[in-house]
Amino acid sequence: MGSDLSPQDQFAQRGWLRFPYDPQLAVWATAARRAGQAAAQDPKHVHWWQCGDTWFVGVDVLENDTAGAINGVALGETLLQHLSTLFGDLPDFHPAQVSIITPGYPKPREGETEAAFGYRLKRDAAHVDGLRLNRDTGARVCDEYHQFILGLPLNEASATASPMVLWDGSHHIMQRALAAALAEHPRADWAKADISEPYKAARREVFETCARIELAARPGEAYVIHRHLLHGVAPWGQGATADPEGRMIAYFRPEMVGGLGDWITF
């Protein structure tokens, strides 16, 4: 990343970190790709095809074990050591999400308003993970408490094939805004506190002040994102290419043991 900072300091300052190519992780990506292809074609997962069948959302469809291994193929010690350096003892890994994007993304998602689709198209559907929106009331609450977001590309795709998008350093702005919003409520009510307006205001500040970065990577590489970093997915670029199934990435979001109280801290 062109910096003399340590990986820990880079992650703290910028909110994301990219790990170099690891042969063991490339072997894992091959195994996970096969499993992801099967999951995307399985009739029991057909509901995960969204946005006019241009996005397989694929939440929790990868049948890995709690160490992240898939069909006996381990993630590898190098990646786990990188993560342990940043986060200490690692929680168990949940079944990974397998996100597949195909040419033409985005199209409107079922039930998506015109404004919401415009936000997906023009702002990459930028969000902080774990904040649930009640579409009936408009209330947004902190609902899931991930320790970090780990992205693992599973196949070859060009740099403009709907890459991950992130706003550099935005975790500082988002965390301050969310912590301040929760502080206005009794701790016992935090999980049901509506943080919609502070969240929207913080997003606007991020768009005005933080650099937007498109983060493309190849199988064998990985990137980790701070849990408060604003991020999204870019539209499929003109002339973009990918392997036949479309751009495929696995995501792990391990849960924080301490729940919301630990999640909201920086």
Describe this structure as you would to a colleague:
The structure is a single chain. This protein is an alpha+beta fold. The chain has one domain (18-263): Sandwich (Jelly Rolls), CATH 2.60.120. Helices cover 30% and strands 18% of the residues. It is built from 7 helices and 12 strands. It has helices spanning 7-14, 23-41, 77-87, 114-123, 170-183, 196-209, 260-263, and strands at residues 16-19, 49-50, 55-56, 97-101, 131-133, 140-142, 148-153, 164-167, 212-215, 222-226, 231-233, 247-252. It has a 7-stranded antiparallel beta sheet. The longest helix has 19 residues, at 23-41. The protein is globular and about 50 Å long. The two termini are 22 Å apart. The model has no long low-confidence stretch (mean pLDDT 96). This is Phytanoyl-CoA dioxygenase (PhyH).
Task: Count structural domains.
Answer: 1
Q: What summary fits the major beta sheet?
A: 7 strands, antiparallel
Please list the strands of the largest sheet in the order they lie side by side: 1-10-7-12-4-3-2
The CATH top-level class label? Mainly Beta
Question: Helicity, in percent?
Answer: 25-40%
Low-confidence stretches: none
Indicate the radius of gyration in whole angstroms. Answer: 18 Å
Kindly report the average pLDDT value: 96
Report the structural category. alpha+beta
Beta-strand content estimate: 15-25%
Helix run count: 7
CATH hierarchy: architecture: Sandwich
Protein name: Phytanoyl-CoA dioxygenase (PhyH)
Organism: Cognatishimia coralii
